[in-house]
Amino acid sequence: MGGGAARRVAVAALALAVLAGVASAAVYEVGDKAGWTVMGNPDYRLWANSKKFHVNDVVVFTYNKQFHNVLAVSKADYKNCNASKPIATWSTGNDSVVLNTTGSHYFLCGFPGHCAAGQKVDIHIAASSAAPSAAPAPEPSAAAGSKPSGGATAAPAPHPNAAPKALPAGRSVAATVAASLLSLAAAVLA
Ligand SMILES: *[C@@H]1O[C@H](CO)[C@@H](O)[C@H](O)[C@H]1NC(C)=O
Ligand SMILES: *[C@@H]1O[C@H](CO)[C@@H](O)[C@H](O)[C@H]1NC(C)=O
Ligand SMILES: *[C@@H]1O[C@H](CO)[C@@H](O)[C@H](O)[C@H]1NC(C)=O
Ligand SMILES: [Cu+2]
């Protein structure tokens, strides 16, 4: 192929690489630099609201394990700071948790008084945020029924009948761009 064609293919490949990067899972440190603590009363609601989480993103809890731990709990236990029946427990001080479903993921510290002091976080993944590569079991009720308790902005459905698993606009555009770049590359190569 000629130089022009090769260049176009290279551009298409680059664009695809960029798009792949956009679609890959993100890693977030809970509380950013503050970590997972009661010192300084970090605002974990504010922290969670400042992110847009997607399925398969990873949150890392970093803390002194002598003073804190991480419990995944139900919504009710999250509200009441009830640590008696956690769904899962982490306690290494450096815990990576994969958010593999849509809906809310509730975490709190099980040390006495810490949750009540604000060491709790509700990480919400909008139903429309499912990564295209993931085959998640969607939790329609979590996103459709209740209003988002975090500030996680639920993407407006483009059509009333749109399936809950519809890709968000941004990713649809990205997919369209990728598709047209691919056909461009194919045309150039033909
Ligand atoms: C915490 O939850 C357990 C079991 O779910 C329940 O028996 C208990 O009464 C709860 N405690 C409080 C303080 O709500
Ligand atoms: C936490 O664990 C990850 C690997 O899982 C490692 O890369 C990182 O350096 C650790 N951080 C601390 C503060 O220990
Ligand atoms: C999500 O991850 C948890 C813990 O890693 C695992 O037990 C569970 O089966 C996973 N769920 C899905 C739908 O992959
Ligand atoms: Cu704690």
The CATH superfamily of the domain at 25-153 appears as Cupredoxins -  blue copper proteins
Architecture (CATH level 2) name of the domain at 25-153: Sandwich
Number of strands: 7
Strand content: 15-25%
Topology:
Layout: H1 3-23, E1 27-29, H2 44-49, E2 57-62, E3 70-73, H3 75-80, E4 88-90, E5 94-99, E6 103-108, E7 120-125, H4 140-144, H5 169-189
Parallel strand pairs: 1-2
Antiparallel strand pairs: 2-5, 3-4, 3-6, 6-7
Protein name: Phytocyanin domain-containing protein
Signal peptide: 1-25
GO cellular component, one term: plasma membrane
3D architecture notes:
The chain is of the alpha+beta class. It has a domain at 25-153: Immunoglobulin-like. Helices cover 31% and strands 18% of the residues. The protein is built from 5 helices and 7 strands. The protein has helices at 3-23, 44-49, 75-80, 140-144, 169-189, and strands at 27-29, 57-62, 70-73, 88-90, 94-99, 103-108, 120-125. The protein has a 4-stranded antiparallel sheet with strand order 4-3-6-7. Strands 1-2-5 form a 3-stranded mixed sheet, with no helix packed on it. Helix 1 packs antiparallel against helix 5. The longest helix has 21 residues, at 3-23. Residues 9-21 and 134-190 have low confidence and may be disordered. The structure holds 2-acetamido-2-deoxy-beta-D-glucopyranose (3 copies) and copper (II) ion. One 2-acetamido-2-deoxy-beta-D-glucopyranose binds next to loops. Residues 1-25 form the signal peptide. Residues 26-127 form the Phytocyanin domain. GO terms for molecular function: electron transfer activity; metal ion binding. Residues 132-164 are annotated as: Disordered. Pfam families: Cu_bind_like.
